[in-house]
Each structure stands twice: as C-alpha cells, then as structure tokens.
Amino acid sequence: MLYKALNQKAKQSYLCRTTAKNRPSVNHLTYIMGETTAARIQRALDILKEETQQFSTDYLQKQLQKVKKDCKSLLSIVEELDNSSETTDVLWKLPNQCLVVDIICDRGRTWKKVIDRNPQSMHLIWAGNGQYGDKDAVAKLLAYQRAARELCPHNPAKLVAVFPQGITHEMANALESYSVKVTGGRVTVSDVVRNRLVDVDDFNDDSIDDTDSDQEVDETPHFNLTGEQERVRKMASDKKIFLDSTTMIVYVSDVCNGGADFNFTDRLMAEQASDERKHSAKGQIETAIRGRTLVTCETALQSYKKFMELLGGPKEKRRAQELIERLTVVPDVISNRLGVAGGTAQLKRKARTIFGTADALECITLTANGRFLRAAAALGVHIAAMVHQSRALSELRRLHEEGSSQKNSTEQL
Fold it and tell me: What is the CATH number of the domain that holds 172?
C-alpha cells in the first residue's frame, strides 16, 4: 500500500510535467528515488507481508514503523516535487562527496534540500546543545552551498532549504544571511528549549585573558591577507578546519586520554568524566579533523600555551606540544562581519579575533565555545562552526586527589 501510494505520487508530481520525449521508460518510483532505495522499501514491505503469520502484531507494528520512518524523507521529497518546475534530477549524489541533492530543478539552476525534522530539536543542536552524533542542519546546508560554488564558481546553483515541519526564526535568519532561500513555516523557540540553552555552561574562552575584554574596541575591518593566510583561504573547505583554544584544550585533556575512569571527588570533574565515558569529546574532534589541515591563529595559540602553562599536567603538556607541531599557524585577521560587530561589549575581543580569523579564511571553526556563537548570532553574525562538548584540564586535579588519597591511607595505617 505504501509503495503504491509513493509510486502514484511520483507519477502525479513529476511525470505530469515531462513531455512524451523525455519520460523515463523505467519504473517511475525507481527513476525518482533511485533503484537501490526503491528496491529496499519494496523488499521491507514484502518481508512484512510474508511474516504476518509468524510473528506477533507488536513485532510487525515495530517493523512497519521502521519502514515508515525510512520512507518519511522520501515522501517529503515527492511532496516537494509539486512545488518544483523543470526538474532535471532527484537524489543526485555529488561527485567525490557524501552529499546528495534531493531535487535539481529550474534546469539545474536550483538545488533543493528537504529537511523533515522537528524544528525545536534542530534549534537545540544548532545552538550548541546537541549530543554526540547530532547533525547541525545549518552547517550541513552550508556544505551544500560550498559544493555548488566549487562545482560552478562563476554561476553556482541557488540553494533552497525546505522544512516541511517548520524552522525557528533564528535558524531561518542564519541561513538567509548566507543567501540560502528558506521555505517552510517559521516557529518560535519553545520555553523548554530556551531553558536548556540558558543552562548550558560553556567553557569561557576569555577566562584567563589579562586584558579588559569587555571594553569597546575601535578596530577597522580589513582583508589584507598575507601569503600564508591567502594560501589557507584558497584551500578547499573540506580539506581544512580551524581549531580554537577550547578545542585544543579538550583534545589534550587527561580526562579525554584515558583518565575518564578516575573517581573524582570534585563534582564538575566527576560529571565531565562520566560524560566522557558515554560520549567521547575527543572522538568528536578526531572525526572532524580526519584528513584535514589543522589551522589556528596566533591569538588562539598564545591563549592555549598560556592556559597549558598555568593548568596543564606533565602528560597534558606533552600532548599539547605534539598537537602544536601539527598546526598551521597564521597571523590574526578579523573578517568584515565580525570587525563591524566589534563596537559592542557582547563579543569579547579575544574570541572575536579567533573566530574572525577563521571567518576571514573561510574555515569551519571547531569549538566548544557555544556561548560566543549564540552571542554573535544575536547580533546577526552567524558563524560556520562545529560545536563539541567541553572538557577541563584534569591531570593536576587527578594527581592531587591521588596524593591526598594515598596520604589518608598512610595515616590510617
């Protein structure tokens, strides 16, 4: 029944707009969705039918729900075909990339990506409060936009993001600031989501800054890139990634490198160790940096070195030096967007310099500083970033607690 309905919808929405000359001779749904997907859906339904007499009704209902979930995005794509004209391809995989354009229409001039997800959940992830493995819809769409520009730099396809379940006003504004057209109902962020975002205790990247970070700064935006900066800017976006100091701290932290099993008495460290056992922050970072050039700026590097000198343990410092040797370090440069936003105390100087350099070099920033991203977004500046969970340096704390425990044991003897 589901297969027939999907097949008929595909005929109505797509084939009715094609001429007799260009109509495909193959099965309509197979043409629209791709042979592998269509065959998988049909096979799943056939199996359900065959097993009706062998399994309980509850089991069959669970299996049917899985099939329906698998088909949901496909149904949304078929529905969107009604709003598309001069469609040339559906579910087209970009060459050498793990990206699939849902609908190519207007004779190739428009790419459509259909995202049928809960708008509140999407907003939570986008704002930096998602869990390991959650996909940020904005970052994903920006990847499609970059791919369109790389494929045809002089006349890139226009990207249209379709949200059948709606999208929050903030996310829609962020996408439109990047010239992505957004269709779908606009919704307000729920109180539940707002409360969860307020409770997030992000690592403060300016916690050890010895300057008055809150004072207004009169800086002129500029784009006079040096040779090294220009070389990095011209690199393909999927071949580079910018690390801020929060990411570098997480990467070398003792709790992320085998120390998560220690039983901390400190409440904050105990919570971070427990969370690291469940969701590895370093694992998130390693996945993001694999196969990419690691870029940072001088301000981020100096902040990192200063932090390590003050709070790093022996092994953490050794790992930090090994990481520094892998970095491509460029001079600071603030992008026009963040330079213009410099006249407000909401964006602290050091963090603005770090994120501004990444923005000027057209790099995605890997960071745990979700607070800065939200502050910038509130001012209309939306930064391409991948947010991971924060972790503190923990080796000195662990050594201190181990020493105290041994001393107490000796005194008891």
Answer: 3.40.1350
